[in-house]
Specification:
Radius of gyration: 34 Å
Order of helices and strands: HHH
Helix content: over 70%
Number of strands: 0
Shape: elongated
Number of domains: 2
Length: 121
Amino acid sequence: MDSRQPSTVSTHTTFRTTWMNRLIVSLVILIWTFLGLIFFWLIDHVIGAVLSFVIASLLAYTLYPAVKFLQRFLPRTLDILLVYVVGFGALCVLPYHFGRHHGHPVDRADAVVASLTGLSW
């Protein structure tokens, strides 16, 4: 009977440590998952801010020569406003103009696919 007693205690201790190890591993996985999500959430916000800054810098760098040229004739504030209005107006009108004269991009894509596959829509 003495030989059984340590055996059951050992089995119980092994069973308990096994489940304790599983609990610790599960908690570590949950913590690392949570930390990873926080990391990627922060990266998302940082990338958004950096991307906005890069786009603004490129826009300013692109428009600076026009502002510098027109500054000879107009006040700087009016000059900047004029360059932005003309620039954004061109960005709005050019896609309309090219789409009107060259067809809609989806129609052209359908024609390319049809010519490549030999199928007609």
